[in-house]
């Protein structure tokens, strides 16, 4: 199994692994050993698509030497291309969209019975969204993602997601709580609520209506959840109640990923983002007035059709003003089916790359400045794994969602513990330091 793209895809692949395990399949790291190769794809930008095609180019000899090998494509590229994918990769056995995840056993069974290629790109017709509980086949790590909503109704003009993942569908809270209880039982300490647009949660379709902030309060009451996060949210669905939740819920970590996309109102309108820069900045101000040390990250696109140099420079200004701790930065890539495709993709490749390099450089400086504020301070780190890189012992994250690597505590600490770490240096979006041993036990008694 191979996954491209976002965290939703990673979660979908994990789910398909679990379901296929029930059918007798066991995941192997060696493709030569596989009876079934399943690639969960992304189509958010052209580059993501190209990676998938080159991977399948490499798989062709395997299929030729073993015709019984089942090759399947799942995810957004499958949904977008449907039968066209079979024309391009004729040796495929199935092509299934993101809504086929729960049916993966049935699809593989049909292929095994000689049917093929199987194409499944219907969106499910339910109003809400269910992931029935299954016994876990492996323990979660200390930090676990939990799907709460799928799809997107925002239709930003550049984005394929509304076409590849369909309409927003929320998952019943009781099912979410049950999954979290199961994960916590198996050792998870941090829960990250996941969706393309999490703060649209509960807007419609739920049998038991519940707003997103109410879901956060509900999750925070589950015993054993020590940290809570969510991603991704949209500025237009950010409510005052959600800001208040940051004050009330002490396990809600002080980091927010809030995509802005660009710093100019004309471009935002062309992007159909439905908010202005003023709206975004006002939201950030409100949030900072309640949670002064909140770390902010964002997504930015440069070179959208018609973006002038001056308009691009407003993106630089905005970044400088907000001082994001990190950003995911992209050059605009025209996508099939999207409204922006109607607009001329008129910013030359070199110019897009130049703008991209400029924002990357600016973000590197902002990240460095943000990181320096931690130097000499102690931060609480949820340990996710051991490491032997650069003389360090453990790695994890602090509440502001910085990666932290530290040395010391080898005989006392293990993944899942929360350690106090004195930060000594930064490198990119990583803090490095040493275990602050012999400290008093914290309120929750982790040390
Ligand atoms: N071109 C470039 N970046 C895009 N994104 C989405 N669609 C495109 C596109 N056509 C970026 C946005 C979004 C992130 C997940 O990917 O910034 O927030
Ligand atoms: Fe795409 Fe916009 Fe929906 Fe995000 S909010 S998934 S960018 S359409």
Account of the protein in words:
It is a single chain. This protein is of the alpha/beta class. The chain folds into four domains: 2-120, Rossmann fold (3-Layer(aba) Sandwich); 128-245, Transcription Regulator spoIIAA (2-Layer Sandwich), CATH 3.30.750.210; 254-372, 2-Layer Sandwich (Transcription Regulator spoIIAA); 378-435, OB fold (Dihydrolipoamide Acetyltransferase, E2P) (Beta Barrel), CATH 2.40.50. 34% of the residues lie in helices and 20% in strands. The chain is built from 13 helices and 18 strands. It has helices spanning 7-22, 46-65, 76-81, 83-88, 104-112, 161-164, 173-185, 212-220, 240-248, 265-270, 277-290, 309-322, 349-372, and strands at 2-3, 36-41, 70-75, 94-96, 118-120, 143-147, 149-150, 169-170, 190-194, 227-231, 255-257, 295-302, 326-331, 378-386, 394-397, 403-407, 418-427, 430-435. The strands form five sheets. It has a five-stranded parallel β-sheet with strand order 1-2-3-4-5, sandwiched between helices. Strand 9 (190-194), helix 8 and strand 10 form a beta-alpha-beta unit. Helix 12 (309-322) packs parallel to helix 13. The longest helix is centred in the C-terminal third of the chain and has 24 residues, at 349-372. The radius of gyration is 23 Å and the shape is globular. The model is unreliable at 440-447 (pLDDT under 50). 5'-deoxyadenosine (5AD) binds at residues 44-45, 158-159, 259, 261, 299, 301, 330, 332-333, 335.
